[in-house]
Design a protein that fits this description.
9 strands; alpha+beta
Length: about 190
């Protein structure tokens, strides 16, 4: 799979380069993302529907889950356990359990992080400006508890054109609550 690996490497470099390109489009206006969603995260606004004690979360979450969701960390590409997940199901916030993404909207962006072209509904994920690391990006957080999820870019596939680039460490996958109809089980 040398060729595939090479392609992935190129795509990975492109992923890192994209935020710089997006800086220009940001300055020109946020085409897809809706200004109303940029008011701030629920933590910044102090109106999270669910909040958790810091020490409680440190016990509940793994170190990488805590670092990503509470300290805006980023897992290394191709290391997250949900990057290659293809089963039907629902992706939930690892902190509060809020439903965030459907498996039907997951696609392989080649970047090493789970990627979705849409959130489950427009209120599930909050988008805010993130100007860290010398880039201007759109940060995504859980609207219920304020957990950091990742970023969203406007270079995704149809129908939305968006690419939600989400850390596996922010997500919990539930294959049982698929939005697809379950096949009736045949008993042999
Ligand atoms: Zn949450």
């Amino acid at each position: 799979m040398f060729t595939l690996r090479s392609l992935v490497c190129v795509a990975r470099i492109a992923c890192y380069a994209r935020p710089r390109i997006l800086e220009k489009s940001w300055q020109q206006g946020h085409v897809y993302l809706g200004a109303a969603t940029f008011a701030g995260t629920c933590k910044q606004l102090g109106n999270c529907k669910m909040s958790f004690d810091k020490e409680e979360l440190k016990k509940k979450l793994t170190p990488i889950q805590y670092e990503v969701t509470q300290e805006k960390g980023t897992e290394r590409p191709f290391t997250g356990e949900l990057n290659d997940e293809t089963r039907p199901g629902m992706y939930q916030c690892v902190v509060c359990g809020a439903q965030l993404f459907k498996s039907e909207t997951k696609f392989d962006a080649g970047c090493g992080w789970p990627s979705f072209y849409d959130q489950i509904d427009e209120a599930a994920v909050t988008m805010t400006e993130d100007s860290s690391f010398g880039m201007v990006r759109t940060e995504t957080t859980c609207s219920k508890c304020g957990a950091h999820l990742g970023h969203v870019f406007d270079d995704g596939p149809k129908p939305t054109g968006q690419r939600y680039c989400i850390n596996s460490a922010s997500l919990k996958f539930d294959p049982k609550t698929s939005s697809k109809k379950e096949e009736p089980k045949s008993e042999l």
